[in-house]
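Hi R.,

As promised, here are both runs. First protein below:
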Amino acid sequence: MKRIEHSQDPAQTVDAFLTAQNAFPVVEKDWVHFVYAGPADAVSVLGQMNDENLGEPMQRIGATNLFVRSYPTVRGGRWQYRFQLDFGEPQVDPRNPNRGSGGYMESSEVVFEGFEDPSFVTEAAEVTGRLVNVAVKSESYGEDVEVPIYVPANYDAQKGYPLIVMPNGAQWIEAGGSSGSSTACSSHGNARRSLRSSR
């Protein structure tokens, strides 16, 4: 970075730096460097390494359009993140093709050495439960709201079950495969059979 700051042709040095990287963000043994290159007055990175609602500012390198923020790596970790330019809407990292799964907004993803998805995520679990749509009277909306609820196999309406409420849950059910992972969690003994609501 000091080479860029003191270069007689900073733009060319930035281009050379970007071309030399195999992937973004730049992951070294103990550090990960988030890099944004483009026109902006201020850039922040928001993600699981900081407060993903507020984020942290990235450092502009000299007078260039290169912004960098570094964090210690976490062995076996996986972070989802986004960039925010000039306090606008967060966006994915244009230099990183890897996208995070689930959630209500698309995000970029970086994984560190030693990371493995747990088996109940990677296994193609059979969905043995079912979705039941229930109309709930909403005082806020002043009308009935349809709430999808995933109930486990052999559901008995006379029994009590734990309830997991998932905001934006429809996306987790449709795109995130939470119905399958719920079934797999139960079969692996990682979770009790539960009801899952998307509200």
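And here is the second one, sequence first, then its structure tokens:
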Amino acid sequence: MCNAWNHPPDCTCGWGGAGHSGRSTDSSNWRVYIPIIQYAIQSFTVPNAKCPVCGEIVFYYWNAFGSSVFFDELGPPWPKHPCTDNSNRYTPQPFDTREAKKTSCPWEKDGWEIFKINTVRPIDRYSIRVIGKNITKNCELTFCMEKEKRFCPKSKRLLFHTRSLAFIKARSGNKYILSFLDDSFNPYDIEVYRTLYALRDAQVSPQTKSLSDDRKKSSSKIKSKKKHKKIRTHSERISKEKLNKLEKKSKTEIEIAFDKAKKKKE
């Protein structure tokens, strides 16, 4: 019989208090014995609950709006646990988290890093700046992105905020991918950029780029034609000047010869 003191891990007396893993599994008290998912590496790599259907160790996450979900892995591509991936509501089963071990997460091997969104600020009418902390590397980061991509195209609802679970992954140059869950636990991947200049350059459509390239080519052709014309006219001008000089020179020699002959006659 339990004496309500120094409870063993498997104790279900109901008097364990906050954090006691053997607390009674009353659905109204599940938040007491399930560790909260926080922005720490351990929360994303060490499972915090058991599946109530199959008993597998899983990640159980609930947001500020009361919605909850079971994940096999807490990170991109955000695989939900199949037993509970339906409209039914399930209560997570507790287990001794001291026995839990860090799982080998594919998102770590794929280059994803945990990103905590601290604030979102407007840049102009079309762009916003996302400021946060890279939890994996413990450093502050700032990204620029298109404002419209923060909203759902159909419902225009906000997709992410400062309470959203998010990850980042470096691509090429200043380009990154921001992966996050909305309030309904739907995953999204959005392109973000480290600098506003990189965002502006990416906002130029391929058609616009091709048009600009064509314009550049045509302008270069026109310039080359003008250049060749200038060279040609210059060479023609030089040749004309030479001819004039030769003509003047030849006329002068004739005149000199004529003058000499005239003098001899005299």
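A quick note on the second one: The chain has three domains: 27-103, 111-203, 219-266. Let me know what you think.

Best,
J.
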